[in-house]
Specification:
By secondary structure, the chain is of the alpha/beta class. It has a single domain, classed as Rossmann fold (3-Layer(aba) Sandwich). The protein contains ten helices and eight strands. The strands form two sheets. Strands 2-1-3-6-8 form a five-stranded parallel beta sheet, with helices on both faces. A three-stranded antiparallel beta sheet has the order 5-4-7. A hairpin with a 4-residue loop joins β4 and β5. α3 runs parallel beside α5 and α8 packs antiparallel against α9. The longest helix has 18 residues. The termini are close together.
Length: 216
């Protein structure tokens, strides 16, 4: 039995937006491991629309308030899809965070998080392009394109290998998945419904990087 506290740092997909059960994937993976006999504390630190720049401003204080040196702790970073989005607003007409800057910010956070315990990196997911852009904020639209998401994901994967940090390429795993496609279409094209979060959690729980936190 492993006793562990895990901080999940990310955006709306980390938060679980679109999930009618309000669980998202972090609580699902936590439930799975509890069912396997482990003692898991889940801290969901996802905030909707956050880019790596926005996460950088808050993640360390939020994690250090929850993940104490006296306990076995880990962090899971799941950010980047918002970096890849094209924003149109009063202040920006372009990519929210350029790829090189995105990689630098995330890699710096991952390096710092190593002081807390094991670090994992979960990559961005595909979208339904015909349902874009997302324009829930008055005067602001975010246009997500799979080509850009794939470019960012591949670069993240390469950086993770360089840093020797486990990376889960969800874009590659889900781009041709019919269940994921339906889960997005039954929601808003960016965030899946509960069935989609089930798919994500199954992939994460089977991932060698995740299993390394629990399997001896």
């Amino acid at each position: 039995m492993v006793e562990i506290r895990i901080g999940f740092i990310g955006d709306s997909i980390t938060h679980g937006t679109g999930d009618e059960t309000l669980l998202g994937w972090p609580y699902r993976v936590g439930q799975t491991e509890v069912g396997r006999g482990h003692d898991v504390t889940v801290y969901n630190l996802g905030i909707r629309a956050d880019t790596s720049e926005l996460v950088e401003e808050r993640w360390e204080a939020e994690c250090r308030a929850r993940l104490k040196p006296a306990f076995n702790c880990a962090t899971v970073f799941a950010i980047g899809i918002n970096d890849s989005a094209y924003e149109k607003s009063a202040t920006l007409d372009g990519r929210r965070v350029g790829l090189e800057r995105s990689i630098r910010i995330i890699s710096d956070m991952l390096t710092t998080a190593g002081d807390i315990g094991p670090v994992l990196w979960v990559g961005p997911t595909p979208v339904i392009e015909e349902m874009m852009p997302i324009d829930r904020i008055p005067g602001v639209s975010y246009d997500f394109r799979n080509e850009a998401i794939e470019v960012y994901s591949r670069a993240y994967n390469e950086k993770a290998r360089e840093m020797d940090i486990p990376y889960l390429d969800l874009y590659a795993a889900l781009k041709d998945d019919a269940g994921w496609d339906k889960a997005l279409r039954d929601s808003d094209g960016l965030h899946p419904n509960a069935a989609g979060y089930d798919i994500m959690s199954d992939l994460i729980c089977d991932w060698s990087g995740w299993r390394g936190l629990f399997d001896e």
